[in-house]
Amino acid sequence: MNNIFPSINKVLFSYLFKLIKVAFLVVLLITGRPTSAQKKYDFDVSVSGK
């Protein structure tokens, strides 16, 4: 079966491919944040006594 609107399909697939790229980038950015947000301190706290 021949496609009636071949140019529309190309445009739709182009937008879909761009959307997938952006979604993948957003997922990478969101999942990469927690490890860089942790703070490490140079001192220890100890409690002694009552």
Description:
The chain is mostly helical and 50 residues long. The chain is built from one helix and no strands.
Brief summary of the model shown:
This protein has 50 residues and is mainly α. The protein is 62% helix and 0% strand.
Features:
rod-shaped
Low-confidence stretches: none
Largest sheet: none
Return the string of H and E elements.
H
Assign an overall shape: rod-shaped
Structure summary, number of beta strands: 0
Individual helix count: 1
N- to C-terminal distance = 85 Å
Q: What is the radius of gyration computed over CA atoms, rounded to a whole number of angstroms?
A: 25 Å
Q: What share of the residues lie within helices?
A: 55-70%
Helix and strand composition category: mainly alpha
Mean pLDDT: 79
Strand content: under 5%
Sequence-ordered SSE layout with sheet pairings:
Elements: H1 6-36
